[in-house]
Every structure is written in structure tokens, then in C-alpha cells.
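Memo to structure team: turn this sequence into C-alpha cells by end of day. - J.P.
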Amino acid sequence: MVKLLNKKLEEVIAVIMDSNDYKECVSLKEKMLKNKELMSLINTLKEKQKEYIKSGCCNKETLEYLENQLYDIPLYSIYMEHLKNVNKMISYVQDDLNDYFYHLFN
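Reply from structure team:
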């Protein structure tokens, strides 16, 4: 049973990794990593998010401003759209697996 489950899970992962959205995410991420200005903005946003969560010292408007700046960059915006689609696929599989195991054990 475990071997069959692992095999089926590997098949699902392969389908996701073969999807256009996943391949675009990988390609766009490689391009993003080469763009120093974009990566600097992403890192700044991450730092501000950490500050906001830890101490609340960074105001929410600053975070929204940085996010808007990122989404104004087509490379980032397109990447995020593909990433959203990949995450939907993963979430769908996760939900099905949760339902399967819930019904199996309850």
C-alpha cells in the first residue's frame, strides 16, 4: 500500500513539474535571480516583513508600497501569476490527500 501511494504521489508531482506554470516559474526565477535591482527590492520587502512580524515597527503602508513596486515589474508579476497557479495545483492535491486520510482513519 505504501509503495503504491508513493508511486502515485510521484506521478502527481511529475504532472505538476511538467506543467507549463511550473516550468515558467523555474525559468522566470532564474531570470529574476540575475536582476540585481529586483532581488534587492525582494530582499528589502522580506526584511520589512520580518520587522513587521517581530516588532510591528515597520508600518503596513511601507509593505504595501514595496509590494506594489514589485508588481509593477512585469517579470515579477508574471512569475507570481504562474506561482499562484502552481500553488493552486499543490493545494488541490493536498486537500485531496487530507480528505483521503481523514476518511481512511475515521
